[in-house]
Amino acid sequence: MTPSDVPEVARIETTAFSTPWSEETFNSLLKRSGVELWVAEWGDELAAYAILWKVLDEGELANIAVRCDLRGRGIGSGLLSRMLEVAEDSGVRSLYLEVRESNGLAREMYARRGFHEIGVRKGYYEGPREDARVLKKSLAGA
Ligand SMILES: CC(C)(COP(=O)(O)OP(=O)(O)OC[C@H]1O[C@@H](n2cnc3c(N)ncnc32)[C@H](O)[C@@H]1OP(=O)(O)O)[C@@H](O)C(=O)NCCC(=O)NCCS
Q1: Is residue 77 in contact with ligand 1, taking CB distance under 6 Å?
Q2: What is the pTM of this model?
Q3: How many domains does the chain have?
Q4: C-alpha 125 – ligand 1 centre gap (Å)
Q5: For 70-86, what is each residue's pLDDT tens digit?
Q6: Own/partner pairs for 17-26, CB < 8 Å, 24+ apart?
Q7: Which CATH number belongs to the domain containing residue 36 in this structure?
């Protein structure tokens, strides 16, 4: 992700999440160390993005979303695979994420990639209020 991608990333974010991050948030993340921000392109269009935080050998997949009209074409799955490589290459050994209880498609995608549930955060999400499932995947690390 580069600064010129941010307006489109923020637009996708507003369609994907009920409490979206702002352009300002993405721009400030681009300046921080320990954060990996990636985009996936479909032809010459920005189709998806993902964000990974890293602290020592732990990481969190903070965000992944695909443009609504391009979903179901393997883009999310492909970007997730790439993020797993990025995490592993940068020494992450334990990768975490949170997902809405009702987000069956994402939960299945994560399960197929070897994430398993380690906990529940009660009422974690707003709009609508819902529990988060906390998932973890162990990686080999660099
Ligand atoms: C979740 C999300 C990132 C998936 O991206 P996508 O490009 O639409 O998904 P893909 O086409 O790569 O499909 C993902 C998996 O679901 C399967 N799948 C896709 N559409 C499906 C459908 N209608 N029914 C059943 N399975 C389906 C695919 O076969 C694929 O399987 P794989 O993991 O074994 O490869 C996307 O739907 C999205 O942006 N959702 C909104 C934001 C969000 O929920 N992010 C996750 C927050 S934790």
Answers
A1: yes
A2: 0.95
A3: 1
A4: 20
A5: 999 999 999 999 999 99
A6: 17/65, 18/125, 18/126, 18/127, 18/128, 19/125, 19/126, 19/127, 21/63, 26/1
A7: 3.40.630.30
